[in-house]
Amino acid sequence: QVQLVESGGGLVQAGGSLRLSCAASGRTFSSYAMGWFRQAPGKEREFVAAISWGGSSTYYADSVKGRFTISRDNAKNTVYLQMNSLKPEDTAVYCCAADRDLRRDGVPTRIYMFDYWGQGTQVTVSS
User: Which helix (H) or strand (E) holds 122?
Assistant: First the structure.
């Protein structure tokens, strides 16, 4: 079992930056691919970014490519999402998730590929 706790959300003006963190419990964190999703009011949860267990592979949604960076520190059991050049349309609850499938090829990007989820942290971008 893995527990995930996000932090770092808040209110920021358009063009600003935030860094989200997701702290994981358990000794198997370094074996899991990790991802970030977001859900805006009235919208479905959508994929934002993912990173392989070792950190060598990453994948981004087109809407955040070039602005967001996902990274991880396995020694600290933490995955990060650096968000730059934020836009009002980035406003959402951001959740991290863990994929325990060690046999998966590539980086997971779909909701059903993830087994553990955090509660989320609110990000609000004002115009």
Answer: strand 121-126
